[in-house]
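Quick one:
INPUT:
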């Protein structure tokens, strides 16, 4: 594992998904799943998200579309919060999910809208509590 790429990935992952979430992921890792955490951090977040050819906002919107089409609600929930941190607006998220409904199927779009509304409610509640 490249330590530099890993560290770059760790920083980007924390900035996008939140420091608490990422640190909790590593803290709860065991001998079985720690290699997966390391792989994701280095290759996904360091080697790919660390490239400068696409802005993070664009990468976030692409992830939302792909995760919606793949029916991955847990990952979608996490990346919706990350997209908001990366400057994607709720209007842009809506437009991405409408695109998903057309090209990925209405059920994928419906489920993704439902998850997005739940995430927005959580984000709003957390902001109101501060």
């Amino acid at each position: 594992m490249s330590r530099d790429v890993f560290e770059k990935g760790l920083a980007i992952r924390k900035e996008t998904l939140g420091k608490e979430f990422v640190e909790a992921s590593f803290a709860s890792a065991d001998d079985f799943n720690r290699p997966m955490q390391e792989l994701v951090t280095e290759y996904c977040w360091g080697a790919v998200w660390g490239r400068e050819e696409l802005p993070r906002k664009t990468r976030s919107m692409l992830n939302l579309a792909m995760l919606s089409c793949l029916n991955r609600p847990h990952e979608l929930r996490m990346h919706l919060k990350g997209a908001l941190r990366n400057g994607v607006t709720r209007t842009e998220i809506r437009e991405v999910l409408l695109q998903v409904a057309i090209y990925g199927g209405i059920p994928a779009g419906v489920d993704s809208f439902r998850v997005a509304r739940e995430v927005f409610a959580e984000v709003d509640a957390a902001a109101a509590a501060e």
